[in-house]
Design a protein that fits this description.
Mean pLDDT: 79
Largest sheet: 3 strands, antiparallel
Low-confidence stretches: none
Helix content: 40-55%
Number of helices: 2
Radius of gyration: 22 Å
Distance between the termini: 74 Å
Length: 115
Amino acid sequence: MVEAAVVLPVVILCVMAVIYILVFLYSEVAAGAKIHVAANAEMGKQTGVSVTKKHIPHGVSVYEGGSVSGKVYFADSSVRFRRSGILRHSFTKQIRTYTYEVDEKKLIRYTDFFK
């Protein structure tokens, strides 16, 4: 009984910690998928090549930049795991994704040039 009284709270604490970590990882993957769809939707809207009609996420900041072979569309978001229960700190992670709009003519020229 004494051993169970000592070990049981530690086991419960470990199980709760694993559950908190899994919830945070799930939130991170879901946010990553959301911003990836937002970046692809913006790239498709700008180029007219790919059109996303359903489930376009709102509230994701998408901006464009440049690269050697075309434009790059960046999307940023953050995942925040709030403080609750026995946790004293909240966790925040920045997630960033990018999608390339490639100019195939330039890509072929540069590939032939460097061969």
